[in-house]
Amino acid sequence: MMHMTFYWSRKVNLLIDSWKTNDWTEYLITLLACLVVAAFYQFLENRRIRLKLIGAGNPFPAEIEAPLLRRKLAGNRAKVGVKVAGAFLFGLSSAIGYLLMLSVMSFNGGVFVAVVVGLAVGYFFFRNEGEDSLVVDTSCACA
């Protein structure tokens, strides 16, 4: 039976039928996996935003300043490559975002907390510098 309200239990069925936790070890590994995937989602969004900055020809932030990179991106073929890479990163981050959303919809309180903490940790480490001035399209509300 699927829960329709939040519950706190070590027994959770996450995303697929074979991903069931029955003891505390499995449950803690599941929570750690949710946390790591949520932080990785923020990392992918950071890479996508940086790629978008490169493709738009905006000034590079100091940490990705590279003279050789500017010369390579000057050509038209390179812009197509940047668009393809951006589309790939967008698709991948959208898929991960939706999987995180479905994980939260298991209504397990621990999974919810793990995903939110993972997003916050990922934001702290990967996305809190210089992105406020850039408007970014996203497919997930948890961006």
UniProtKB/TrEMBL annotation:
InterPro entries: Cop_transporter. It is a multi-pass membrane protein. It holds the Pfam family Ctr. GO terms for cellular component: plasma membrane. It comes from Glycine soja. GO terms for molecular function: copper ion transmembrane transporter activity. The keyword Transmembrane helix applies. It is found in: Membrane. The lineage of its organism: Eukaryota, Viridiplantae, Streptophyta, Embryophyta, Tracheophyta. This is Copper transport protein. The chain crosses the membrane at residues 27-44, 80-101, 107-126. Keywords: Copper, Copper transport, Ion transport, Membrane, Transmembrane, Transmembrane helix, Transport. The keyword Ribosomal protein does not apply. Belongs to the copper transporter (Ctr) (TC 1.A.56) family. SLC31A subfamily.
